[in-house]
Amino acid sequence: MTNLKRNLKRILRNNEGFLYILPWLIGFLVYKAYPFASSLFYSFTDYHLFNGIREFGLMNYKDIFNTKKIMDAYEVTFKYAFMTVPLKLIFALFIAYILNFKIRGVNIFRTAYYIPSILGGSIAIAVLWKAIFKNDGIINILLGYFGVEGPNWLASRTHALFVICFLRIWQFGSAMVIFLAALKGVSQDLYEAASIDGAGKWRQFFSITVPLITPVIFYNLVTQLCQAFQEFNGPYIITQGGPRGSTTLISLLIYNNAFKSYEMGMASAQAWLLFLIVMTLTAIAFVSQKKWVYYSDEEGR
To answer: Taking the CA atoms of the chain, what radius of gyration do you get in angstroms?
Structure first.
């Protein structure tokens, strides 16, 4: 009995670190690994939440490519991502560049520009956005003061997509803060040397600033791309995917299939296809970084 207690104490002492991470490990297996694996399994079935599984195979993936509504949702998602990500990064870098100068009250401006990123993903902001852009909302009222008849933003296929894109672009504060930190790390000696050589502000920006912060541009590009493909709150609250599916992003379609139609197998297949698309775009970004991302430590290699 004494030897058994000694062995248990020795085992516990040797695996003390494992015991510390055991709560996280259990949480990861239960809430991450199991749903991840089960969704892959269900994507090859016709699993219905109430009727169970009756068939196995590739039927879900075949239906995805043969169903116009689903393919349109992927097309809208690509449009949304490729419109919002570049514009969001451009705005974030532009504002960060301005706020990097020593101007009075700069901290107030930094806070003001960052707040939308904190609030932008909330339901309340999406409801407010819907109220602003509705037919008799603030935007059309302001346009009316200038004699311009505003469109019915949320009922137009083109304008509705613009509204949810604009909400995403408006949330550029988090990327701005990261850009601002990168700009602070650029040596002022480089700007002084460029000024002596006669380079103006724009030349300094494109020849010094942009190359030196390309690692941060790359980081923001990848993170914002992943987030854009997972957008849900805006289309769900503001337009409910309309009009006529023009703002039905794939995340919203997955939600509708899973929790309205209860077609868990189809929803899992759509989610996995979305995962593969995001992984492919991320891999392309990582491969392309060799052509345009400058790392300062490469000089010593």
So the answer is: 25
Q: In whole angstroms, what is the distance from residue 226 CA to residue 235 CA?
A: 17
Distances (CA, A) of 144 to 154, 160, 170, 222, 233: 17, 19, 23, 40, 29
Cβ atoms of residues 125 and 133 within 8 Å: no
- CB of 170 within 8 A of CB of 121? no
Which contacts (CB < 8 Å, 24+ apart) does range 51-56 have? Answer: 53/265
Among residues 280, 268, 296, 224, the alpha carbon closest in space to that of 64 is found at 268
**Can you count the helices (H) and strands (E) in the chain?**
17, 0
The pTM of the full predicted model, rounded to 2 decimals, is: 0.86
Q: Are 248 and 254 in contact (CB under 8 A)?
A: no
pLDDT, tens digit, for every residue of 122-157?
A: 777 888 888 889 888 889 888 888 888 888 898 888
Token representation of residue 132: 């602003």
Q: Which DSSP symbol is given to 56?
A: B
Task: Report yes or no: 130 and 154 within 8 Å, Cβ to Cβ.
Answer: yes
